[in-house]
């Protein structure tokens, strides 16, 4: 969606765009849930994940709560299931034992809710109320469903059995990308006050002053990470933080999740298929502790969240922060690997059109990038429309990830978008790039 909708276009245009986003998002949900049989839908493929059928009904329940009941003021469709699909009341490990809606009933529920939402969309006034201005509540629901679609894609990656998802390979490299980029010292505007669908943790916009630093021009690749493994990086506590080394020993970390030795190299299981690890792809399925250890071994560190965002948004020619590395235009297939278009990260150099003005590549899409920053609210943060979206996660437990992955939709990914997870998590599509401080004599090169 563009930065201003109702001010620069009429309500009918906004309705049309929202309807298209709702339809496109639901098509992805149905693809992920109809690719398997009902037995797979109700099975829990990992204690880290919900059964797919729980996610299916949960997105419908959130749509009912916020759009049908709150925005529309309509009678509930199924108020008897609210507790079953409350993510805070029902831990993932316990969800298979709940009396969940069976697949056919869940699909019928989603269809009924969506019919009422379309009726509401035809009538709603996009007035100054914050929940409906610029279609915010509809955008929030689109993003929520797309986030669960990525979660369901991660569940498919953990699922045992033959491959059921198919997609063409990503493009081959179109540019040579290597080394580091110097980001000069100075302020930049972090966060946003203008993006109509930005969520509460992306707000408010605020100025951040940063010293000069170097950041990798591309994410760390499989080939570079294999060097870390070969050098004994997993066996040397010098490179690991205290909690990282403790976790590495407790669970026996020795390589990225889904890797196994394959002759003189490695193979990687991807959605039911085994492939040889490709050296020029960004490494994926590593936890924060692994990323941090690699960075220490390489003589670097992970970037802070502010450093990541400045590299992704700051335009040195104008001094302004753009919506994406390439500008303010919506991402296309030439800019980034998003939206499950491909079921793997693209090789480094595949998206030169998506590079930032400083020459930093593949900041959006491919892999979520771990940062060194704990998840907190920005100065002046205000929870909206409910504390449970962001505020309850603030603290010392969660690390921030940025940039989105090949499984993230463009509606839920922009230069300001913030993700977070426990530092031990590897089932997500997570990788990283490194940074380092610039010495005084390097700061003005």
From TrEMBL:
Species lineage: Bacteria, Bacillati, Actinomycetota, Actinomycetes, Micromonosporales
Protein name: Hercynine oxygenase
Residue ranges constituting the DinB-like domain according to the UniProt record: 21-152
InterPro entries: CTDL_fold, DinB-like, DinB/YfiT-like, EgtB, EgtB_Actinobacteria, Sulfatase_Mod_Factor_Kinase, SUMF_dom, SUMF_sf
Cofactor(s) required for function per UniProt: Fe(2+)
Xref: SUPFAM superfamilies: C-type lectin-like, DinB/YfiT-like putative metalloenzymes
Residues reported in the UniProt entry to bind gamma-L-glutamyl-L-cysteine: 92-95, 421, 425
Transport among keywords: no
Reactions that this protein is recorded to catalyse: gamma-L-glutamyl-L-cysteine + hercynine + O2 = gamma-L-glutamyl-hercynylcysteine S-oxide + H2O
Function: Catalyzes the oxidative sulfurization of hercynine (N-alpha,N-alpha,N-alpha-trimethyl-L-histidine) into hercynyl-gamma-L-glutamyl-L-cysteine sulfoxide, a step in the biosynthesis pathway of ergothioneine.
The entry's keywords: Iron, Metal-binding, Monooxygenase, Oxidoreductase
Organism field: Micromonospora sonchi
Protein's pathway: Amino-acid biosynthesis; ergothioneine biosynthesis
Domain Sulfatase-modifying factor enzyme-like: 178-436
E.C. numbers: 1.14.99.50
Keyword Secreted: no
GO molecular function, one term: gamma-glutamyl hercynylcysteine sulfoxide synthase activity
Family statement: Belongs to the EgtB family.
Residues at which Fe cation binds: 58, 144, 148
